[in-house]
Amino acid sequence: METQRTDAIAISKLLEDYYIKGIYTGDTALLKKIYHPGTLLFGDVKGAPYSKTLPEYLNGVVNRQSPEDAGTPFSGEILSIKVVQSIAVAEVRVKMYDFNYHDFLSFHKIDGKWLIVNKMMSDVNS
To answer: What whole-number distance in Å separates Cα of residue 25 and Cα of residue 1?
Structure first.
């Protein structure tokens, strides 16, 4: 039980330092630190299906103005983290521009490091 709590705290820190901050600043170097290179992203944006590989997603981040640079409101909130041995799921909400994303992020502990291996997201404003 203590290991699960320690791992959940570690995942929370990774989400704050790399995931949420990387999205806010548009820093793909930060995002690459938390994603496994083979990560796939699925969901819907404004009611339309969304499916990308990690390189496609990161290319989109590089080619958009970050919320930080735009000076627009932004929030990232960790709703929950559930850890079972070497796997975990984090539920995160990210509000930026006119999007209100609800994310489910699957983690796997690989070589002692927690990495996102799958991202499911939905723009709940649509």
So the answer is: 35
Query: β-strand 99-110 against 87-96: which pairing, if any?
Result: antiparallel
Domains annotated on the chain, with CATH: 2-123 (3.10.450.50)
Identity of residue 120: M
Q: Is the pTM of this model over 0.70?
A: yes
Question: How many whole angstroms separate alpha carbon 25 and alpha carbon 118?
Answer: 21
Over the stretch 109-118, which tens digit does the pLDDT of each residue have? 999 999 999 9
Q: Is the pLDDT of residue 1 over 90?
A: no
What the block records as the tokens of 23 is 């999205």
Picking from 124, 24, 25, 9, the residue whose alpha carbon sits closest to that of residue 78 is 9
Answer whether 41's CB lies under 8 Å from 104's CB.
no
